[in-house]
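[retry 2/3] EF-hand domain pair-containing protein: previous attempt timed out, resubmitting with same input.
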Amino acid sequence: MRPNFSEVQRIFQTIDTDRSGFVDTVQEFQELMKHAGVDPSKGQSFLQACDFDGDGKISVQDYLRYIYLKINHPTTPEFVMFLAADSDCSGSIDPKELYSMLIKLDAMYQKYTEPQLQQMIHQITGGKGDLNLQQFTQLLKVIGVPTK
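[retry 2/3] EF-hand domain pair-containing protein: success.
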């Protein structure tokens, strides 16, 4: 199911009161949360879920992607981690993205070098390239990343 892009864009433009092209003020962010039906106490989690490029503000593209994912995908811990790791929004995880995610998670995962992770990815994918969600979930189990 696809969200109605023009409707999402219209709503976003209404919320973007300073016309910056971003939800980047406290008031705009609170209004966006209210529109999305998000509990105000979940503000930080909502920002992380929407801010796909990590710039600290939400663009209409960020919000559209959030709406699409909310409609179409379950929010399992593995899926949320997959989205966070997929920094180029390609739909797959490459060794650099995996390495960056592990560094952000905890120092204990820094024991894996990028070449080691590349080898693990090669083994899991059978040499076919980057990780999809299912393969990513499998790799998290192999290296012991808790997902609960």
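[retry 2/3] EF-hand domain pair-containing protein: The two ends are 28 Å apart (CA to CA).
[retry 2/3] clearing retry counter.
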